[in-house]
Amino acid sequence: MAFDQLRKIQSLTLDTNVLLDLPEVPKYKDLEPQGENEKARRERVMDSYMVAILCLSQNIKIRKIGMKIVEKELANSRDLLPIFYSIFPEPVKPDRRAKKLADLYVSNAGLQVPDALIVATAATNNVDVLLTWNRKDLAKDTARQKIEEINKSAKVHIPFVCDPTYFIDRLSRSEGSSTISLALSPSPVLRAYRLSFFPSK
User: Fold this and answer.
1) Tens digit of each residue's pLDDT (9 = 90 or more) over 175-193
2) What are 94-107's pLDDT values in tens digits?
3) Could you tell me if 12 and 131 are in contact, meaning their C-beta atoms sit under 8 angstroms apart?
4) How confident is the model at residue 79 (pLDDT cuts 50, 70, 90)?
5) CA–CA separation, 117 vs 102, rounded Å?
6) How wide is the angle at C-alpha 39 spanned by C-alphas 35 and 40, nearest 5°?
7) CB contact at 8 A, 65 and 127
8) What is the residue extent of each domain of the chain?
9) Which ranges constitute the DSSP H helices of 23-174?
10) What does the DSSP assignment read for 8-63?
């Protein structure tokens, strides 16, 4: 699967680091950033918020899949666990097949075990998009290419791993009579084709 083609999105999930941004939304929602670091942090937090809103929206035809490993990582957060359960009605855990695939990611793609389990569980459950801020390990081209090679060889679905900003900038819509279908473009799309509740960039 090439990374330079339009892809339909029928299912998605969020990594822990996206959900952990949500408690900071009130702090950054009306804040005028003072400096580059604060500006970058505000953009990240608000983009995490936008993808959470997307997941909660009822008029978007999309299957939302929650990873049990993410739920476990959020176990100490009383605020975030209810949000996680609201967003993700379909929790899935790594089965034997996912664990075997995760071992391949660790040995051949250099992923850490928790990251490998999240991607492998997404792959074995046919998740189209995994959103993460882990640009160092997961959301980088070399990691995506290794995951693609491993999954092709194992004849397993290939999830697209990217960060929320990439996702928002490339998300396009197709409106039917009662639902909105989504697709991910390889390049940023015109604002007219973005979902209406996404802020202008």
Assistant:
1) 666 667 788 888 887 765 5
2) 999 999 999 999 99
3) yes
4) confident
5) 5
6) 120
7) yes
8) 7-186
9) 25-29, 36-56, 68-73, 80-87, 96-104, 113-124, 141-154, 164-170
10) EESEEEE-HHHHTTGGGHHHHHT----SHHHHHHHHHHHHHHHHHHHHH-TTB--E
Its CATH class, for the domain covering 7-186, is: alpha beta
92 and 68 Cβ atoms separated by less than 8 Å: yes
Average pLDDT, the chain: 85
Which residues are CB-contacts of 190 (< 8 A; sequence separation ≥ 6)? none
> What are the two backbone dihedrals, phi and then psi, of residue 67, each rounded to the nearest 5 degrees?
-90, 130
Backbone angles phi, psi at 94, to 5 degrees: -65, 125
Confirm if 116 and 84 have CB atoms less than 8 A apart. Answer: no
43-74 burial, b at 16+ Cβ within 10 Å, e below that, comes to bbbbbbbbbbebbeeeebebebbbbebbbebb
| Residues 24, 198 contacting (CB under 8 angstroms) | no
